[in-house]
Amino acid sequence: MIRFLMLAAVASCLGGCSTVFPLPSFISSDDVTGSIHKSPSPLSKKLDAEDWRRAHAALGVALDPQGNGASVSWSNPLSGMKGSFVPISDAYPRDDRICRVFMAEIGAQGSDQVQGTGCRDRSGEWAVSDVKPKPRNS
Predict the structure, then answer these.
(1) Phi/psi zone of residue 41: left (φ > 0), alpha (ψ -120 to 50 degrees), beta?
(2) Quick one: how far is CA 123 from the chain centroid?
(3) Residue 87: how many CB atoms within 10 A of its CB?
(4) Cα gap 13→24, rounded to integer Å
(5) Any idea where the domains of the chain sit in the sequence?
């Protein structure tokens, strides 16, 4: 009898571990937290969404594998931001995409200079990766 009571007690305790109680969320999806906002641009935190839209369009022209490799500039008169892109390599394939290394100047008189890789997927969208400050010896 004691063995049966102990088995029942153990079964009751273990059975409680698998019980699910649905609880409503205590956090609203509309709550604003103190988290850091991610910059819309992978090139610089200084660029807002409209700056990046204009820069991204110029990037596509500059990195076009059929292009002449010339510098392509962009500007946003509303924010005062501007910049340019110069491809510094020939186009090459990488993971079913066409890629090209570039140098970018962002801000007044090239205050930020970065190097990165732009890759175009089959849909024609350019994605930027490997962004780092411009090498000093360049």
Answers:
(1) beta
(2) 18
(3) 22
(4) 25
(5) 49-133
